[in-house]
Specification:
This protein folds into 2 domains: 49-134, ApbE-like superfamily (T-fold, Orthogonal Bundle); 166-286, T-fold, CATH 3.10.520. It is built from 7 helices and 14 strands. The protein has helices at residues 16-40, 48-53, 64-79, 89-94, 146-158, 248-261, 263-273; strands at 5-9, 59-61, 123-126, 131-134, 164-168, 171-175, 184-189, 197-203, 206-212, 227-228, 233-234, 238-245, 276-281, 286-288. Strand 5 and strand 6 (171-175) form a beta hairpin. It is globular, with a radius of gyration of 19 Å.
Length: 295
Amino acid sequence: MGTVITFEVLDGSVDAGQRHERDQAVGRAMNWFHQIEQICTRFDPQSELMRLSAQIGVAVSVSTILFEAVQFALSVANETGGAFDPTVGLRNEARGFNREFRRGQQVRSLVAMDDDPASYGDVLLDPANKTITLRRPLVLDLGSVAKGLAIDLAARELHGQSNFSIDAGGDLYLGGRNFEGQPWSIGIRHPREPDQLIESLHVSDAAVCTSGDYERRSADGLEHHILDPRTGTSAVGVASATVVATSAMVADALATAAFVLGPADGLRLLERHGVEGLIITDTLERLATPGMKLE
């Protein structure tokens, strides 16, 4: 997934059997990240997602994980009128965001993009048979869904440990309490000052995910990786969007969707979903949902 995954489990005073159980749980949690990547990445030609992209106009039977990830992504796309759209893989390739992070190699799919780009309406789902049909040439990009899904599945493995944290490149799940028996303290990065925090908050049994224009930029530095599918260019108006939700997949997707929608519409999206969030505009204005408790 192009990032470092860190687990922290606070187990206090435990015996050898409990330590073994903890280590087993952490191993299962880590395995979810490997499994989700093998299924959902667009940077591996052998992934299930890329094998799907090679079959246009065919109802393809897929795994439950891939089906659920795509179904959720399409539901967000439909609600946002395409501001969030998982069919932007080819356009992201064309913009230069096609580098496999571990080896640094550029990855290009064998799918040719039409002059008129595909959209989420070109993906058909059959829930009864768990099939996906791509009506036109396209590559799905589940980058704003898959990592959150992996975090959620990993957190499920660790819930028996009571107090733990999962950090997947800044996307977090915080279970229980910290060393001091208090909710976890989380800092939100300043989008223009890399070594500073712009806000902080306390979280327990929830996910925190942030989308920012500083995360990945094009080689010339003029564009960032968050595409507005409606314009075909980098989304403007927002520097970062942070979402707090019970699910990391929800928080991850809604952070990206709110970023693309812009400050006002993005905030309304978060409020409709009953999640908390903070949007930092490109002029560093802070807009937060009513229940977002910042320090």
